[in-house]
């Protein structure tokens, strides 16, 4: 193989590797709207770390839904570690961030934002199923502690109880967008966007 052909192949490989990132994996309206500093790609999943403002659980869920996503779903320790590490070490977040897990409407039956039952869990002591029997009726929405990666249940919204409990239900959060472009190589060639 001639050096020129080798170089061409190298350039082609690098080009594909570069393009298979935020621009291709994250929804384009999101890429256009937010500073790409807050977008991360892991495998074929795009994550938006919304760490520059806070919302209630419902507001955060709606925000993720706007571009076809959900709140992030760390269904295993590996992904949970990734989200924890990015939040704390990359973005410097030290307070809990909403993830897509709740037991709204069915106490102790936690479900992910995609409707699936929770299998692996990572609740901090005294949170989730082991929370106080009365408090757990009020705390139905789950947030990730970026310092140790454990999950905490909180009040979902601003309401009467948040004032009583003295809890602030507006938090930073992480959205998750699954890769939706099956024919991405075709799109690259045609320049479709
Ligand atoms: Ca609960
Ligand atoms: Ca709690």
TrEMBL record:
InterPro entries: C-type_lectin-like, C-type_lectin-like/link_sf, Ca-Dep_Lectins_ImmuneDev, CTDL_fold. Residues 42-157 form the C-type lectin domain. Transmembrane segments: none annotated. Keywords: Signal. The keyword Transmembrane does not apply. The keyword Signal applies. Residues 1-20 form the signal peptide. Gene3D superfamilies: Mannose-Binding Protein A, subunit A (3.10.100.10). Pfam families: Lectin_C. This is C-type lectin domain-containing protein. It comes from Elysia crispata (lettuce slug).
């Amino acid at each position: 193989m001639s050096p020129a052909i080798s170089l061409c192949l190298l350039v082609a490989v690098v080009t594909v590797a570069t393009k298979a990132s935020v621009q291709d994996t994250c929804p384009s309206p999101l890429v256009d709207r937010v500073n790409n500093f807050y977008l991360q790609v892991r495998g074929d999943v795009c994550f938006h770390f919304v760490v520059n403002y806070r919302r209630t659980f419902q507001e955060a869920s709606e925000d993720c839904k706007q571009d076809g996503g959900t709140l992030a779903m760390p269904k295993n320790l590996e992904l949970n570690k990734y989200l924890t590490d990015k939040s704390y070490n990359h973005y410097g977040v030290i307070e809990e961030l909403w993830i897509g897990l709740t037991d709204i409407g069915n106490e102790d039956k936690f479900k992910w934002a995609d409707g699936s039952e929770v299998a692996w869990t990572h609740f901090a002591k005294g949170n989730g199923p082991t929370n106080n029997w009365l408090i757990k009726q009020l705390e139905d929405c789950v947030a990730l502690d970026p310092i140790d990666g454990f999950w905490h249940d909180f009040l979902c919204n601003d309401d009467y109880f948040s004032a009583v409990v003295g809890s602030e239900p507006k938090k930073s959060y992480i959205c998750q967008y699954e890769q939706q472009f099956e024919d991405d190589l075709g799109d690259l060639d045609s320049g479709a966007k």
